[in-house]
Amino acid sequence: MTKKSWDNVPSSEITPEHAYVNRREFLRSAGIASVAFTSGAVLLPSCAHGQQKEEPTSYQRITTYNNYYEFGTGKDEPAEESKGFKTSPWKVKVDGLVKKPADYNLEDFIKPSTQQERVYRMRCVEAWSMVIPWWGFPVSDVLKRAEPLPSAKYVEFTTLLDPQQMPGQNYPSLKWPYVEGLRLDEAMHPLAILATGIYNKPLMPQNGAPLRLVTPWKYGFKGGKSIVRIRLTDTEPVTSWKLANPHEYGFYANVNPNHDHPRWSQATERRVGELSRRPTLMFNGYPEVASLYQGMDLDKNY
């Protein structure tokens, strides 16, 4: 399979879901290896991360079983309550400790100055409950454009505050707006992306449209959705879940089978649609991020 730059992949080459699913059996029988998503890889015959091949969760399940408190705390509520949510026009403020603060339209991120169509990487994420082929672009694309100052150490992501469109924000389940955060080197890692789609389709509102943070080694813990602000700071952001319950949710929130949540074990996981459980992998099966935490006690820095 030929490798290409992400900037040069035409939309016609992104595999439709029906073809994507039907091709898997052909490719498997033909002995063609699946593509691991490192820099430059393109087109995904079978979901993979690290050395593992993973079957993707169906689009129907991905878009009907959601965790998005802004639209309700039940897993089925976001799909219903987000109907009619406006995702265009969409502006994102990038500010804080940067040389070039600016307000961007979403289109400023997903199309280069030549205005030629640009298709970004798809990525399979082994989550607590799903395997999702994301479509998006690196967080670092945005940060490099803003030019972080030497004093910048953290990145804060803020979700839209709009109780009229987001009925869950009328209830104090969390302090609104939702805030998520990463250390700057985590945000600059190529696995950290801002997702704009699933399979070859734009994100649905219940999945965090139009712009969602995806950090696959933290999936299930960190995933700011409908992002309207990206702020760089020299102090650790007070994230929503840490604010709500600091004894259960720390700032780092890595997938770590060796650190149990106070109310459940992280040692195993169960996929949506499956009955049996499987061992949870350290960093969700992405060992390439381990160097970010060298020398840290991840049982204390949870």
If you had to describe this structure to a student in words, what would you say it looks like?
The protein has 302 residues and is of the alpha+beta class. It has a single domain, classed as Alpha-Beta Complex (Sulfite Oxidase, Chain A, domain 2), CATH 3.90.420. It is 15% helix and 21% strand. The chain has seven helices and 14 strands. The termini are far apart. The N terminus is likely disordered.
Count the domains: 1
Total beta strands:
14
CATH topology tier name? Sulfite Oxidase, Chain A, domain 2
Approximate helicity band: 10-25%
Main CATH class:
Alpha Beta
CA gyration radius, whole angstroms = 19 Å
The proportion of residues in beta strands is 15-25%
Distance between the termini: 39 Å
Helix and strand pattern: HEEHHEEHEEHEEHEEEEHEE
Summary?
It is built from seven helices and 14 strands. The chain has 302 residues and is of the alpha+beta class.
List the helices and strands and how they pair.
Layout: H1 17-30, E1 47-49, E2 52-54, H2 59-62, H3 77-81, E3 91-96, E4 102-105, H4 106-110, E5 122-126, E6 131-138, H5 139-146, E7 154-159, E8 179-183, H6 184-188, E9 193-198, E10 201-202, E11 212-214, E12 227-233, H7 240-244, E13 268-269, E14 278-279
Parallel strand pairs: 3-12
Antiparallel strand pairs: 1-2, 3-4, 5-6, 6-9, 7-8, 7-12, 9-10, 9-11, 13-14
